[in-house]
Amino acid sequence: MRIEQIIEEFAISGKLEKLKANKEGLINNTYISTFVDEDGVQTKYTHQRLNRSVFTDPEAVMNNILAVTTYLQEQVAHLEDASRRSLTLVPSKSGAWWAYDSDGELWRTYRFIDQVDTFSFLTDTSLAHRFGSAVATFQKHLADFPSDRLVDTIADFHHMGRRYEQFEAAVANDRVSRLRHVQEEVAFFVENKERAMALTDALEANQVPLRVTHNDTKVNNVLFDSTTGEGICMIDLDTVMKGTLLFDTGDMIRTGCITAAEDEPDLNKVGFDLELFTALIGGYRSVADTFLTDVERSLLAESGRAITLIMGLRMLSDYLAGDVYYQVSYPDHNLARTRTQIKLIQEMDRQWDKLLAVCS
Ligand code: GN1
Ligand code: MG
């Protein structure tokens, strides 16, 4: 089925003028369209096909997103630019919130938010501060959302113990005979296993509250207003579920303080920038200090380390399984991603006392 055909299914007026693919995500397929109406006014949309092997219950994903975006829209309704501060789904012509193509794949459409900038990593402290406050604002808006209304669309998504089990199985199976190339990387994760459990342990012991979590708060999932620079909207809500907010601070730290892209093959370029970290935590806490508990605050630095570790663990597991989960652009892509995460953790560890001091 042609993409134009599936777009036809949605309640959009005007004529399709432009269509282009967006290659950013690792999971779904994304396209941006431009429609023009009779008066020549252009409107843009984002169309996405959900990856069915990752999201085995795509309608549950959509119901989570619908609940959260509807709630967010109410929270920001009083603001002048409310429509830019939350994703908005466009219904299908038959009144559903998604449409199926002839292969049975689920597609959805969002209104495109224009005049924004996105970044795959940060280079200045002002931006880091704004990234931190955007993540905290998202959490604040959802603070009173009843998290039990959300379905766990990927079971144990950030459960460290489960991720280790999957990793250990990938090592044992060595499906595509890559294990011999990654002995050092495997050893790194084995050595770090005990410490890695910090977030999962705190959650299971009820030391931190269950909240709504985004679960993919990487910096390129924030839209920054091109004029004001403010981080106005968190996108990519596929993994909104319940969990600890430390999952989200963790991915914020992982992607907000690295000095290169997450798949940078030249490890000399990969560092953990303490100045960015200071600004990021400052921005985050300028909003979050009103709702953070003491235990959550005490685990902020650890959350960055744990989430970086879980990403590396998942990337290496996928490398060993033969690249079946993440989209890759070249054969060792998942290995490059893994090594970047390991290097980032080593860089955190080198400055660990300073990280703790920033969060105290
Ligand atoms: C995946 O597709 P994308 O880029 O939004 C992944 C996240 C990882 C991320 C690593 C459902 O997100 O968990 O953090 O890649 N999403 C899923 O960049 O697995
Ligand atoms: Mg995502």
What can be said about this structure in brief?
The chain is of the alpha+beta class and 360 residues long. The chain is built from 13 helices and ten strands.
Top keywords for this entry?
alpha+beta, 5-stranded antiparallel beta sheet, binds magnesium ion, globular, 3-stranded antiparallel beta sheet, 360 residues, binds 2-acetamido-2-deoxy-1-O-phosphono-alpha-D-glucopyranose, 43% helix, 13% strand
List the helices and strands and how they pair.
Blueprint: H1 3-8, E1 15-22, E2 29-36, E3 42-49, H2 58-76, E4 99-100, E5 106-111, E6 116-117, H3 125-141, H4 160-173, H5 183-191, H6 193-196, H7 198-204, E7 211-213, E8 222-225, E9 231-234, E10 241-243, H8 245-256, H9 274-288, H10 294-298, H11 300-321, H12 333-350, H13 352-359
Antiparallel strand pairs: 1-2, 2-3, 3-5, 4-5, 6-8, 7-10, 8-9
Helix pairs in contact: 3-8, 3-9, 4-11, 8-11, 9-13, 11-12
The structure holds 2-acetamido-2-deoxy-1-O-phosphono-alpha-D-glucopyranose and magnesium ion (MG).
Walkthrough of the structure:
The protein is α+β, with helices and mostly antiparallel strands and 360 residues long. The chain has 13 helices and 10 strands. The chain has helices at 3-8, 58-76, 125-141, 160-173, 183-191, 193-196, 198-204, 245-256, 274-288, 294-298, 300-321, 333-350, 352-359, and strands spanning 15-22, 29-36, 42-49, 99-100, 106-111, 116-117, 211-213, 222-225, 231-234, 241-243. It has a 5-stranded antiparallel beta sheet. A 3-stranded antiparallel beta sheet has the order 6-8-9. Helix 4 packs parallel to helix 11 (300-321) and helix 11 (300-321) packs antiparallel against helix 12 (333-350). The longest helix is centred in the last third of the chain and has 22 residues, at 300-321. The structure holds 2-acetamido-2-deoxy-1-O-phosphono-alpha-D-glucopyranose and magnesium ion. Residues 27, 216, 236, 238-239 line the site of magnesium ion.
